[in-house]
Design a protein that fits this description.
By secondary structure, the protein is mainly alpha-helical. The chain is built from nine helices and four strands; from the N terminus they run αααββαββααααα. It has a two-stranded antiparallel sheet with strand order 1-2. A two-stranded antiparallel sheet has the order 3-4.
C-alpha cells in the first residue's frame, strides 16, 4: 500500500491519469496506472520484508490468524514493513551518473513514461537502474571462512571460538553478518596465506 500511495502521488504530480493503465484492469475506482508502475519496483517491498525476516524483527505478535487460517498483519507488523520500505526508498543508487534515492528514481521513471507518451522521448527503459544486493555472506566469503585454519586465525588475533562460530554460520544456509573488523581480518587472511607461499 505504501508503494501504491507513493506512485499514485508521483503520477498525479507528473500529470498522468492514474486510472488509465496498461496491465491492470481499468475501472473508475481503480488507479490502474499506479498499480502498473509499482510492478517494476515491487522488489523494494520484497527486500524490505526479507530484511525484516532475516533480522528477526517480525514476531508472531505482528500477525493475526483469521478464521480461514490465513495470516494477516496487525498494525504493529504493518508499521514495521512501512518503516523498512521507507528505509529502502532512501537508499542510494547510481542512476544517470548521479547518486539518487530510490524514491527519486521512481519519480524520474514516471516522468520518463510521461515524456515517452507525449513523444518527447523515443525510448523507455524500466530495467535500469538494476538493484545490486551487497551481501556479506556471499559464497566467496563462506568459502574463505571454511578454508581458514585455526592456526592462521590465531595469528590474526582471534580466538578459536570465534572462527568455530563463523564456520558454523558459513556451513548453514542461513544469512549471517560479520562485523567490519572481522571481515577485514578475513580479507587479511588471504594476504597472510599468500605471503607464506
Amino acid at each position: 500500500m505504501a508503494a501504491h500511495n507513493l506512485i499514485l502521488h508521483i503520477t498525479r504530480v507528473i500529470g498522468l491519469d492514474a486510472h488509465v493503465g496498461f496491465l491492470h484492469e481499468m475501472t473508475p475506482s481503480k488507479n490502474s496506472l499506479a498499480y502498473d508502475l509499482q510492478e517494476p519496483f515491487r522488489f523494494l517491498v520484497d527486500l524490505a520484508v526479507i530484511s525484516l525476516v532475516e533480522n528477526g524483527a517480525m514476531e508472531s505478535k505482528d500477525f493475526i490468524r483469521t478464521e480461514n487460517y490465513n495470516l494477516r498483519l496487525k498494525p504493529t507488523g504493518a508499521r514495521k514493513i512501512v518503516n523498512e520500505f521507507s528505509n529502502m526508498l532512501n537508499k542510494k543508487v547510481s542512476y544517470q551518473g548521479k547518486e539518487s534515492t530510490w524514491s527519486y528514481v521512481i519519480f524520474l521513471k514516471v516522468r520518463e513514461l510521461a515524456h515517452y507518451l507525449t513523444s518527447k522521448k523515443e525510448k523507455l527503459d524500466f530495467v535500469k537502474p538494476e538493484y545490486e544486493i551487497e551481501r556479506i555472506d556471499s559464497y566467496a566469503i563462506r568459502q574463505k571462512i571454511l578454508n581458514i585454519s585455526y592456526v592462521d586465525w590465531k595469528k590474526l588475533g582471534f580466538s578459536k571460538g570465534t572462527l568455530h562460530y563463523m564456520k558454523q554460520n558459513a556451513k548453514s544456509d542461513k544469512p549471517f553478518t560479520l562485523n567490519a573488523h572481522v571481515l577485514e581480518r578475513v580479507n587479511k587472511w588471504e594476504a597472510l596465506v599468500s605471503g607464506q607461499k
